[in-house]
Amino acid sequence: MLKITPANDRQTVITTFEMTPGTCQDLLDELTAAYEEFISKQPGFIAAGLHVNDAQTRIANYSQWEKREDFQAMLRSEEMRRRNRRINELCKSFEPVMYDVAACFD
User: Per the database record, which ranges form the ABM domain (predicted)?
Assistant: First the structure.
């Protein structure tokens, strides 16, 4: 389960994808399949969420990992490299960025 707290020792990764409305659903399908079939089964994976904006021009992905190295190992795997080539074809750009939680507000 996603848990957002500044005292958390988890690695948070936020990835934004930019695409056209015409490729949004295809990209969402690819990302969903990647999580269901591969990413969620990788060591250190905790949880993730996919968010689509109203215009269907951006997808934001929030994921948590036990350690930075777990995320990096998944990203560098042959399976994910293959999937990322397909994902890259469906969007203008995407960028995963690792973050530390600085503050939370309930």
Answer: 11-98
pTM of the predicted structure, to 2 decimals? 0.91
Write down the pLDDT at residue 7. Answer: 65
Q: Which residues pair with 63 in a beta bridge?
A: 13, 48
Note whether 19 and 90 are within 8 A (CB): yes
Task: Say which residues have a Cβ less than 8 Å from residue 66's Cβ, sequence separation at least 6.
Answer: 10, 11, 43, 44, 45, 46
* Average pLDDT value for residue range 37-61: 97
Token output for 90:
């469906």
> Do residues 16 and 69 touch, judged by C-beta distance below 8 A?
no
Residue reference for tokens 């203008």: 92
Entry field: residues in the chain:
106
Write down all domains in the chain, each with its CATH number in brackets: 11-99 (3.30.70.100)
Q: Cα-flanking dihedrals φ and ψ of residue 59, to 5°?
A: -125, 130
